């Protein structure tokens, strides 16, 4: 017993410097992102590429550098060993809480109503379609639950919550997470471009991005590319969807326990719901309240918010770098074509439905 304990302690001890190495890799690539964002326009000034250089923003550099780092570390056999430091969820949630400080409480309150309506309708329609189509293709119920939750709510976080609710296999969760990243990465660049081509107002573009792109980090990246106003609305819409994770997880828990498996008579409780509720949503709201009151009542309050915004940018950069470092195509290759077809089809439905709802609910929304 003591030998086993010593072995386990040894593994934990070795894991600490490896995780720190992962954090160091994220920080180095994040710093390089900041350097490229500020200097590339200067390097390419008075050249045919000057316009393109000025249009490229930090999410593009961060994700690209993350993917390059992924390739290099993978070749060296270090990517998995350092993965404990790729804290995507921590970085993005901290960044979004800090973002709340710059979101005026008036915008948050006025956008909350249409955001809730959009989220409920969108989750219901997209989840229902994905569950139905996956069933038609004979996909396992647990994987159906993960795919439907991921594509209709908020990507990896929703898949994790659903996996706990239905007791899915680790491989099913890894596969669902891989699909989320594969489909989210092109959306980061495609949706802001389409919103510009179509000529969508900032509020509509933000609502479309926040309602359609699966993972919260990708929403932040796409919103940043679409502009600060679009980013605020996108974040409000996405955090509203995040807040519904708990309800969906509880519903899945009850469905699988009482109908699919019928091995337990235990019913979900309030504590189960609270355990699955994304706490950072409360932090985002609190930061919005504090930031609004601070700007209104403190001299130099706007300058203070500017410092917080800069810190927020750092955390978002670290999150986008981590997305690139964590990406793996292995699970995609192993799972076959049916889940890919389901996820892709559901993504198309999500794009169309989210755009329609955004136009109806945010078409006359006033920013500022």
Describe this structure in words.
Helix content is 82%, strand content 0%. It folds into two domains: 1-86, no CATH class; 89-362, no CATH class. It has 17 helices and no strands. The N and C termini lie far apart (64 Å). It has helices at 2-43, 50-55, 58-75, 88-100, 105-136, 141-154, 156-166, 170-198, 202-212, 216-226, 228-243, 245-260, 270-276, 280-297, 301-326, 330-335, 338-362. It is an all-alpha fold and 368 residues long. The mean pLDDT is 80. The longest helix is centred in the first third of the chain and has 42 residues, at 2-43.
Short characterization:
The chain is mainly alpha-helical and 368 residues long. It has 17 helices and no strands. It has helices at residues 2-43, 50-55, 58-75, 88-100, 105-136, 141-154, 156-166, 170-198, 202-212, 216-226, 228-243, 245-260, 270-276, 280-297, 301-326, 330-335, 338-362.
Strand content: under 5%
User: Helices and strands, in N-to-C order?
Assistant: HHHHHHHHHHHHHHHHH
Major beta sheet summary: none
Share in helix:
over 70%
Overall SS class? mainly alpha
Structural domains: how many: 2
CA-CA gap between termini:
64 Å
Counting H and I runs of at least 4 residues, what is the number of helices?
Answer: 17
List segments where confidence is low: pLDDT < 50 over at least 5 consecutive residues.
Answer: none
Total count of strands: 0
Q: Write down the overall mean pLDDT.
A: 80
Radius of gyration: 21 Å
The geometry reads as: globular
């Amino acid at each position: 017993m003591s030998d086993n304990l010593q072995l386990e302690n040894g593994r934990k001890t070795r894991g600490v410097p490896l995780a720190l190495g992962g954090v160091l890799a994220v920080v180095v690539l994040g710093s390089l992102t900041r350097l490229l964002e500020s200097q590339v326009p200067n390097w390419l000034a008075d050249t045919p590429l000057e316009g393109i250089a000025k249009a490229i923003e930090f999410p593009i550099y961060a994700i690209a550098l993350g993917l390059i780092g992924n390739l290099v570390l993978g070749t060296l056999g270090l990517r998995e060993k350092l993965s404990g430091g790729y804290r995507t969820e921590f970085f993005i949630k901290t960044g979004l809480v800090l973002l709340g400080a710059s979101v005026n409480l008036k915008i948050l309150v006025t956008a909350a109503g249409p955001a809730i309506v959009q989220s409920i309708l969108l989750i219901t329609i997209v989840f229902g379609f994905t569950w139905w189509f996956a069933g038609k293709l004979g996909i396992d119920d647990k994987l159906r639950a993960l795919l439907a939750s991921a594509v209709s709510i908020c990507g990896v976080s929703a898949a994790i919550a659903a996996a706990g609710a239905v007791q899915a296999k680790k491989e099913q969760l890894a596969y669902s997470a891989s699909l989320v990243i594969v489909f989210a990465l092109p959306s980061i660049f495609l949706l802001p471009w389409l919103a510009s081509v179509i000529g969508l107002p900032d509020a509509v573009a933000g609502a479309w991005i926040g309602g359609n792109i699966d993972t919260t980090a990708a929403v932040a990246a796409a919103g940043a590319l679409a502009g600060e106003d679009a980013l605020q609305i996108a974040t409000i819409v996405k955090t509203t969807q995040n807040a519904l994770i708990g309800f969906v997880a509880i519903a899945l828990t009850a469905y699988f326990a009482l109908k699919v498996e019928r091995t337990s008579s235990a019913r979900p409780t309030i504590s189960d719901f609270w355990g699955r509720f994304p706490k950072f949503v409360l932090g985002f709201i609190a930061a919005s309240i504090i930031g609004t009151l601070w700007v209104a009542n403190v001299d130099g309050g706007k300058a203070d918010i500017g410092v917080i915004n800069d810190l927020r940018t750092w955390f978002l950069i670290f999150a986008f770098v981590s997305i690139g470092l964590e990406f793996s195509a292995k699970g995609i290759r192993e799972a076959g074509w049916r889940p890919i077809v389901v996820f892709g089809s559901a993504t198309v439905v999500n794009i169309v439905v989210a755009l329609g709802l955004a136009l109806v609910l945010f078409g006359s929304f006033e920013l500022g």
